[in-house]
Amino acid sequence: MNYICFLVLLVILALINHNEVYGAGECGKSSPDREAWKLASCVIAAQDGNAPVSDRCCSHIKRLGQNFACLCAVMLSSTAKSAGVKPEIAVTIPKRCNIVDRPMSYKCGDYSVP
């Protein structure tokens, strides 16, 4: 009987932890790393401030830009980092995409969005 109670408690704790991790992050039910994969078309523009930003990249940025906390988390994610994204350049992409309703001077980690 004690064994069953322990298992039930373990399952409940796992469910609570699962909801905290996937239910209310910066990107809703998705993770910043998962969202970073969707921004593969932005990698070159996020590595080189002089590189053109593709229309596909801007489209994704506009969609994520509605939740700037998520976009910031994506730019600072381990997936973006492993792809060679430079956060100080990545934060310039919304401006380079001419997104007019981007938050000015938004702090994204150590970087400010222009």
Describe the structure in your own words:
The protein is mainly alpha-helical and 114 residues long. The protein has helices at 2-23, 32-37, 43-47, 55-65, 68-75, 78-82, 87-90, 93-96; strands spanning 107-108, 111-112. The chain has one domain (26-112): Hydrophobic Seed Protein (Orthogonal Bundle), CATH 1.10.110. The protein is built from eight helices and two strands, in the order H-H-H-H-H-H-H-H-E-E. Strands 1-2 form a two-stranded antiparallel sheet. It is globular. Residues 2-23 have low confidence and may be disordered.
Explain briefly what this protein structure is.
The protein is mainly alpha-helical and 114 residues long. It is built from 8 helices and 2 strands, in the order ααααααααββ.
Distance between the termini: 61 Å
- Mean model confidence by pLDDT: 79
Rg for CA atoms = 18 Å
Reported for the largest beta sheet, the result is: 2 strands, antiparallel
What structural class do the secondary elements suggest? Answer: mainly alpha
Helix content: 55-70%
- Please mark out the parts with pLDDT under 50 across 5 or more consecutive residues, or reply none: 2-23
Structural domain count: 1
